[in-house]
Amino acid sequence: MKFKTLFTSIFLSLVIITSAHAEFMPVANVSKIQGKAFINKEQIKVGAEIAERMELVIPKAGDFVEVKFQNGHLIRFTGATVKVETLNPKNTLFNLLRGKLYSAIKPLTQNETFEVKTKRVAFAVRGTHFMIEETKKQSYLCVCEGVVSAKSATGEVKVNKDEDLSLATPKSELKATVAAKSMINMTNVVFKDMGVL
Fold this sequence. Notes:
- The protein is of the alpha+beta class.
- It has a single domain, classed as Jelly Rolls, CATH 2.60.120.
- Helix content is 19%, strand content 46%.
- It is built from two helices and 16 strands.
- It has a 16-stranded mixed sheet that branches.
- A hairpin with a 3-residue loop joins strand 7 and strand 8.
- About 7% of the residues have low confidence.
């Protein structure tokens, strides 16, 4: 009887410790850097944790940071400024203020979300490869695999593989169009460099 009680106590302790450890594990870390990048104005290195309420800034247009998630998602921010609004094992929301975001997102379950918003439009995915570029003139989306849902003040539209979407203002009409082959090819070159194609 004492052995069973001792065994049960040890087992429950291990379960609690393992659960607590998993709860405090970082959701995402910097896996690669080219050039200089800053989180909350401090220069970062490979291995840095990405967490909620952080602002990631990559000042130069050609420089980038890759972020690897514990669940296998991989993102590259190029010449970007992005605010991390939500980041936990089930929900992610980035606010892309400028620059490019290349995302290779693994399939999500029904209770998981992955979203990126810009000043003109919000994008939601369930598992796909896509690129978003935010400039002063427009928000642009290019989908290389899967489907991305785009939502703005004018409505919502699904953007499929080999399609793109461009918005000049939040009130611009949401309309998916066939992406230029050159844009798909340029985007896929980045995904190949990231090791996801």
